[in-house]
Design goal:
Blueprint lengths: L26 E7 L2 E7 L2 H13 L3 E5 L5 E2 L4 H6 L1
Antiparallel strand pairs: 1-2, 1-3, 3-4
């Protein structure tokens, strides 16, 4: 009988400072609601904005920060896409 993980090694959890290739991720999203807080980082502006719009539509307080440290609230997400 095979073990439950089929002999796969667990995914490593990095420091959150980059991706698998070692590059710094350009966009970070933080979503907060009640006592919960989640953060995500992506290289793609399109993917981070899409994720942020979904979370905001579900009632989360969402902010995206770009590589320069500028923060974008939901009304400014389209502005981030146009950059």
């Amino acid at each position: 009988m095979l073990p439950a993980n089929c002999r796969q090694s667990p995914l490593s959890r990095g420091t959150g400072q980059g991706n698998a290739r070692g590059c710094a991720l350009a966009y970070k999203m933080i979503a907060e609601r009640d006592n919960a807080k989640y953060s995500f980082a992506r290289e793609s502006r399109l993917l981070i904005v899409a994720k942020a719009k979904v979370w905001a539509s579900e009632g989360w307080r969402v902010v995206i920060t770009d590589q320069d440290g500028k923060a974008y609230a939901p009304p400014e997400f389209d502005q981030l896409l146009a950059a």
